[in-house]
Design brief:
Radius of gyration of chain A: 18 Å
Oligomer: heterodimer
Strand content of chain B: 25-35%
CATH architecture of chain A: Alpha-Beta Barrel
Order of helices and strands of chain B: EEHEHEEEHEEHEHEEHEHEEEE
CATH superfamily of chain A: Aldolase class I
Number of strands of chain B: 16
Helix content of chain B: 10-25%
CATH topology of chain A: TIM Barrel
CATH class of chain A: Alpha Beta
Number of helices of chain A: 9
Largest sheet of chain A: 8 strands, parallel, barrel
Order of helices and strands of chain A: EEEEEEHEHEHHEHEEEEEHEHEHH
Number of domains of chain B: 3
CATH architecture of the largest domain in chain B: 3-Layer(aba) Sandwich
Number of helices of chain B: 7
Chain lengths: 317, 316
Amino acid sequence: MEESVDISVEFAGLKLANPVFTASGTCGYADELSDFMDVNSLGGFTTKSITLKPRKGNATPRIVETDSGMLNAIGWANIGLDAFVEEKLPIIEKLSCAVFVNIAGETIDEYVAVAERLAGERGIAGLELNISCPNVELGGISFGTDPSQVAEVTSAVKKVAGDKVLMVKLAPAVTDVSVIAQVAVDAGADALSLINTFTAMVIDIETRKPILANRTGGLSGPAIKPIAVYLVNKVYNEVTKSLGIPILGMGGIRTVSDAIEFIIAGASAVAVGTANFIEPGCSVKIIDGIKKYCARNNISDIKELIGSLETGQDASH
Amino acid sequence: MSEEGSTVKRGEYSAAVYANKQIGQRFYRLGLDFSGAGAEAFSKIQAGQFVQLDLSSAALPAAENIPEDLKDAAERKVLLRRPFSFANVTTRDDKTSVEILYCVVGPASLRMTTLSAGDSVSVIGPLGNGFSVPEGKKTAILVSGGMGAGPLQHLAKILTADFPDIDVIAFAGAKTKDGLPFKRQLDKIAQQLEFSLPEFAMYGVKSLVATDDGSAGFAGLVTDCLLEWLGKSDLAGESMVIYSCGPEVMLARMAEIAKERNIDCQVSMERRMACGIGICQSCAIECKTDSPGESVYKTCCTDGPVFDSKEIVFSS
């Protein structure tokens, strides 16, 4: 019965084998998870954030566990654009899943420079614009919380992105994510990914200092899932549904049920992040589980499930 | 020690608990069995390599058995795996049995105490690099602080088995005698080099014990105990190799001592880890480069946890 279930999805013109991605920062640059799973079996893959120059990242401690979650303040530690192109692109080109390169910068020019360099590279399906990372002093979330900055960086990158799918990653802690989402779409975004992490803090009561060297970090994991599901549904209803723009939904996905919640809420695809640290092969289990769920519920095509949240009102469909 | 350990494929394996023995107020030795592919993978694990245990679904002890200072910790949920090195590895037929020395300090280690024979535990490994033996060494000195003793016990076994021409001695230090994670009651332990610690004596390795407060063995830091022993020995620095594991302030001191005496020294470093497999970049270790004043970050989980002590920029 599972064989007749079609879980392929169309995502901004890309045909994905299934709706499961791994999230940026949790799966390396290419095939680092391959000791634990077949990366090619994913629908999509998002790389670690790439910046123009290599970055060392923040001082340690960079992480701390919380109940059902963790804070991270890695600080965009990455090998930089040149090393990424030289060392990682050749591996990426051989992957059969859709690869999105997450791009980041401290200035709009830096985002543009990275995007421009990657726009012509085959093997890359899209760019994920990281304007929502809370762990760097400049760039990241400082671009993603102000609508005019969102518009500026998105349209600047769009101009140089060529035929790459431009996916903008949204920060959750704004007054209205839908406002930011609309601005990004108007500025040329082909897809949206949400949510990024929440700025949070853990204090050591013996030293009376924050645990993280950066003081604050981004909260991820199961604790944020209900908020993520809500925000995905909000943006779907208020912005993307009528425009046909796909959402990559993420935030605390660990199980098949979690993934299905996001799809019902309006995500065309989902990304597994923090869970990769605990069970590196869990995204493959989720792919299999989605097939089983569809078979069990007589869903022959997963597209029926996307945004199928029953409103409970007399809605005109 | 062969280079094999670095080419063994890492994986996620299910281990069966065969023992979980309390050896001190807060110290336990957990025994795990691997069979099948796991037995194969861990039969080749090097001393100093580590694994990531999933303890998220292990049960808490009964409330009356939770120490007062860990009551709040018991309320914490465990999400991430925890890293441990092995204190012993034994292979027999198609089974590999390992022991983990652990101390009850927080929500995960508290849950570890309730694991009992027959329970299964998810283990990711082998991870990281292990201790290595440079050419031409005649004496290996193992220096542990507190819980650092675990991987050095495994190392003692490997050295005595595979390098019979190398003399091995161990130094074990802690703040007080209750902080020494060994099976034997250590009241009134002698200061001199003896077979006083069974976990080393079983391999024919003599040991010296040091406690900051003098409640057992040498009164003072284990590094001072080592200095006293080195002062009495006429061994050439180049003929020795030091392996050390313990609090970072101790490792920093070991690096100084090794540098002063021109002794090769390998340290096992620790950092908070999320993935443990080289992806998340959480476990950054600051390392020197060829350019003075410039440093790079390496990962404790993949570039380490064992490093040449000369390389590390120790956190103050």
